[in-house]
């Protein structure tokens, strides 16, 4: 499959403000106010315009005609959580690679909300960026419509679904779940539980859960999934999971946590109750956060290729824009590896 990113002719088929106005049955000025001064538009008209905007995938053009050339030096990127350590290296690698080639990063956080991601994508496209980079393949209908109609390169990172239209750069979260379960099974653990993320909308973590479920069933074991209270802070969610799981009549002898924050919360909570880790229960995380090796016992985890994703995504953007040459005619594989980092907790 060729992974060159075709670009539509600029402006071809672009939905205009006048198109939205006609379909919504209002004036162009009213549509403009909907975006700039929504409080001056009646609730009934706001609802009507919003429906048309979503249906058409309309993006307001925020760049004045004389500034249209500004699109050439800005790349928009939407990350689920800017404050989370798991994405820090991706952002840094992406930004560094862009800046060395005269481009700048425009960054937004969705915090695992497809609605917030859609809002960020609409805003970014309104500023006519050179390219758009998203995280994973889980988007709202509105976002899918906008990226399908975008006349710029669109790349999805931290994922690998090569059948999709946008280029994929990352790994299979399902396979990570399989790897985690098989790793623990190979170390002779048999009652293996999985703890989901407490952040609503982390669908990638659910894919890791599904990989775990499939693997343990193939190994002849029973899946055991714990879902912490939605919205609970990660350390507290890990504590909640550890306490609940260890109260079972036959508690797990190993737990896979959706990320290292949860795993750390679970590990520390277990120690406070006198639990021996890994003697009584092994703990495995995901992310290889900076604190993982500092814990006592140090945390075994699965390390994603965070930096490589950022560097490769920026490189593919620059190649698609003609800034960097495409090396040879060999098909490029954007599937990267995650590594099991074995430490004391397993």
N-to-C span:
40 Å
Helix percent reads: 25-40%
Which radius of gyration do the C-alpha atoms yield? 23 Å
Largest beta sheet: strand ordering: 7-6-8-9-10-11
Plain-language structure description:
- The chain is α/β, with parallel strands linked by helices and 346 residues long.
- Helix content is 39%, strand content 13%.
- It contains 11 helices and 11 strands.
- The protein has helices at residues 17-24, 28-36, 43-56, 88-99, 114-126, 141-149, 173-186, 203-218, 234-246, 260-272, 306-320, and strands at 74-79, 104-109, 131-135, 154-157, 167-169, 192-195, 225-226, 254-257, 282-286, 300-303, 339-341.
- 43% of the residues are buried.
Task: Identify the notable features of this structure and list them briefly.
346 residues, alpha/beta, 434 Repressor (Amino-terminal Domain), Rossmann fold, six-stranded mixed beta sheet, five-stranded parallel beta sheet, 11 strands, 13% strand, globular, disordered N terminus
Please summarize what this structure is.
The chain has 346 residues and is α/β, with parallel strands linked by helices.
SSE topology:
Elements: H1 17-24, H2 28-36, H3 43-56, E1 74-79, H4 88-99, E2 104-109, H5 114-126, E3 131-135, H6 141-149, E4 154-157, E5 167-169, H7 173-186, E6 192-195, H8 203-218, E7 225-226, H9 234-246, E8 254-257, H10 260-272, E9 282-286, E10 300-303, H11 306-320, E11 339-341
Parallel strand pairs: 1-2, 1-3, 3-4, 4-5, 6-7, 6-8, 8-9, 9-10
Antiparallel strand pairs: 10-11
């Amino acid at each position: 499959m060729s992974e060159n990113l075709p670009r539509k002719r600029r402006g071809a088929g672009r939905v205009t403000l006048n198109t939205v106005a006609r379909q919504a049955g209002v004036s162009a000025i009213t549509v403009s106010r909907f975006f700039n001064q929504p409080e001056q538009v009646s609730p009934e008209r706001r609802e009507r315009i919003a429906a048309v905007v979503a249906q058409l995938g309309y993006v307001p053009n925020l760049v004045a005609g004389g500034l249209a050339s500004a699109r050439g030096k800005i790349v928009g990127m939407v990350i689920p959580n800017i404050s989370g350590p798991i994405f820090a290296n991706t952002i840094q690698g992406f930004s560094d690679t862009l800046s060395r080639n005269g481009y700048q990063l425009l960054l937004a956080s969705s915090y695992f909300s497809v609605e917030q991601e859609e809002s960020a994508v609409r805003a970014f496209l309104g500023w006519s960026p050179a390219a758009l980079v998203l995280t994973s393949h889980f988007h709202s209908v509105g976002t899918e419509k906008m990226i399908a109609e975008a006349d710029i390169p669109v790349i999805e990172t931290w994922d690998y679904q090569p059948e999709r239209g946008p280029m994929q750069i990352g790994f299979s979260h399902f396979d990570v779940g399989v790897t985690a379960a098989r790793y623990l099974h190979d170390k002779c653990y048999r009652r293996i539980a999985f703890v989901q993320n407490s952040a609503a909308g982390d669908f990638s973590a659910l894919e890791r859960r599904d990989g775990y479920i499939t693997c343990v069933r193939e190994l002849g074991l029973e899946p055991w999934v714990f879902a912490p209270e939605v919205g609970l802070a990660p350390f507290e969610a890990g504590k909640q999971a550890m306490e609940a799981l260890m109260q079972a009549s036959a508690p797990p002898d190993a737990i896979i946590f959706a990320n290292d924050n949860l795993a750390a919360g679970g590990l520390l909570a277990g120690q406070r109750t006198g639990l021996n880790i890994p003697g009584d229960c092994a703990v495995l995380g995901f992310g290889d956060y900076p604190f993982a090796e500092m814990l006592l016992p140090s945390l075994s985890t699965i390390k994603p290729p965070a930096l490589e994703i950022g560097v490769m995504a920026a490189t593919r953007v620059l190649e698609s824009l003609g800034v960097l040459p495409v090396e040879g005619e060999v098909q490029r594989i954007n599937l990267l590896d995650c590594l099991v980092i074995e430490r004391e907790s397993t």
